[in-house]
Each structure stands twice: as structure tokens, then as C-alpha cells.
Amino acid sequence: MRTSFITEQQEIDxxxxxxxxxFVGMTEKDGSPYVIPMNFGYADGIIILHSGPxxxxxxxxxxxxxxxxxxxxxxxxxLYQHAEVACSYSMESKSVLCKGKIEFVDDLQEKERLIxxxxxxxxxxxxKISTPxxxxxxxxILRPESYTAKAFGQNFRNLSGL
Length: 162
Description:
alpha+beta, 4 helices, 12 strands, 40% strand
């Protein structure tokens, strides 16, 4: 499978913005991985996540706030280099893997601002958010310390061309 690395921040941002969800990886107390799917917002290079105020994921982040967040485009086009070679098949897609440390936001005005940015990822509507709702949401931000971005299946032939 041919893979190319993507290093331009503008292309990385475009991949992240095109995704509808991400996967957030944390570390269990025994060192094993714990990964959850999440909705997200993305603005000014910051990944915005949110959850309820309690849960296993928050206990894990209290112990170790390092995470790995993965985004992958959702193009399911199957491609190949040679129709008779199984290992030459691929799916056309792009992915971004971000690593960094989660910060929790407690300031109510900042939480409201970030929740509105979060919602812009999914809709252009403007929302009025009640103070109790803002208080009850756990708002996370990730300022990625590193990115790894890749493109898969580029320049392959479309399976429909068999």
C-alpha cells in the first residue's frame, strides 16, 4: 500500500475539518489503551471536545492527561495497483494523528465561546446556551504538540475499473 506523508498545516487542517468525528486515545491505569469516539470542534489549531462531568475517561485524564486523537476521512472508494495482487488493494483516505495534553476549561464565558465554536463544525446555526448547560458540560481542549498526517491509496486505480 502506497502511503504519502502530509506536512503542510493547511492540508492537515482541511483533513480535520472534513471529518465528522474523531477517536481519542488515553491510557488505562495498567498501561493499556482506552479509545473513545467523540464529536469535536476545530478552530485556530485547537481541538475542542466535550463530555458529561463524570466518567471513566475523565478519571483516566486526571491521572494522565496525554492523549492521541485520530481523524480519518470517510471515503470508502476501494483502489488497487494490480487487480490480481491482494496486498496492492487500498482505500483512498487521509488521516491525521495528533498528540498532546488535554486541558479542561472552567471559565463559563470561555466554555460558552468554545461550545459555540464546537457547534460551528456541525451547523451554521447560532445557539443561545443556558448557564446550567454550560456548567454541566466538561469542556476539553487539545493544543496538539505533534501531528502525523498521511494519504493512502493516492494514484491507485478504482476497483470499478476491473
